[in-house]
Structure formats: C-alpha cells, structure tokens
C-alpha cells in the first residue's frame, strides 16, 4: 500500500526514518508507525 501524508514542519526526522502501516489487531484500525532513524541529517519528508 502507499499513502501520502503531511508531517508538520516543526517535526524533525532523520533522513533514514521509516514509516510502516500497521494494525492494532485482527479487526483493529490501521495506523502509520514512524520509526526515527539514527542519522544526523534531517529531512522534512519520508519516502
């Protein structure tokens, strides 16, 4: 799946961050889980 989303400009994410669509259970709702990377270079978007 692919989603497009906006991240507030005041949120700073390392360039090696990742996003994963996950579910809270078998019938649970889905959400986007963003895991920050360990890098020092920041980005304003995820791919």
TrEMBL record:
This is Outer membrane lipid asymmetry maintenance protein MlaD.
């Amino acid at each position: 799946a692919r989603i497009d989303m906006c991240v507030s400009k005041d949120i700073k994410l390392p360039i090696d961050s990742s996003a994963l669509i996950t579910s809270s259970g078998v019938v649970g709702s889905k959400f986007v889980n963003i895991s920050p990377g360990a890098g020092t270079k920041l980005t304003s978007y995820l791919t």
